[in-house]
Amino acid sequence: LMNNYYQQIGVKRIIYKPTPYIYHTIPSGEDLYALFRNNAKLIGRNISTTIYQSDKIRFSELRRRGVKKANKNGMSLRESNDYSTFWNVLSTNLQAQYSVNPVHSIDEISLLSSRFPDNIKLYEGQSSTGQVVAGAVLFLCNKVCHTQYISASLEGKELGALDLLFDKLINDIYVDYPIFDFG
User: What's the mean per-residue pLDDT of the chain?
Assistant: First the structure.
């Protein structure tokens, strides 16, 4: 029925991206089966990095050294609603590396966060002088803690800010979420 409808209104191509199974509250594959039955063509696959809290591996030696370095240099973490400072760090990195902007504008992420305060969280890493040098925006969905945006300034990278941030997020703050998804 869907194929007939879209043909009638002139749609020539549909690109479908399935929701990763880790987000399913009740696992099923009817969508993928329907695509198979209708001779859908696979045009790509994406990679995902996910931690199952019940079976996580220990941080590598490099990451543990980063955590120690961050602690030694007085790094601190905090939850924040001030997206503008982190967005500057994020936008600068995305422009420098890929010549792109974040998918969400600062106004969009601020609005989404205000509408879903229990589901969208910003954590910032601050240097000993209080400057935001790293951060992560998390989308919380049922049993999954998903990192939507991750970034660190050059200073943050040198200080091990992301190592400390993710050590705390994975091992302390969101340890009760069964799945931690880096996307």
Answer: 95
Q: Which residue has the tokens 């509408």?
A: 115
Ramachandran sector of residue 178 (left: φ over 0; alpha: ψ -120 to 50; beta: rest):
alpha
Kindly give, in sequence order, each residue whose CB lies less than 8 Å from that of residue 102, ignoring residues fewer than 6 positions away.
87, 90, 91, 94, 109, 149
What is the CB neighbour count within 10 angstroms for residue 40? 12
The number of angstroms, rounded, from the C-alpha of 127 to the middle of its chain's C-alpha atoms is: 22
131-168 per-position pLDDT tens digit: 999 999 999 999 999 999 999 999 999 999 999 999 99
Convert the pLDDT of each residue in 76-127 to its tens digit. 999 999 999 999 999 999 999 999 999 999 999 999 999 999 999 999 999 9
Quick one: which of 93, 71, 73, 81 has its CA closest to 152? 93
Which residue has tokens 């974040």?
102
Nearby residues of 150 by Cβ (< 8 Å), 6 or more positions away: 135, 136, 162, 182
Distance of alpha carbon 148 from alpha carbon 37, whole angstroms: 33
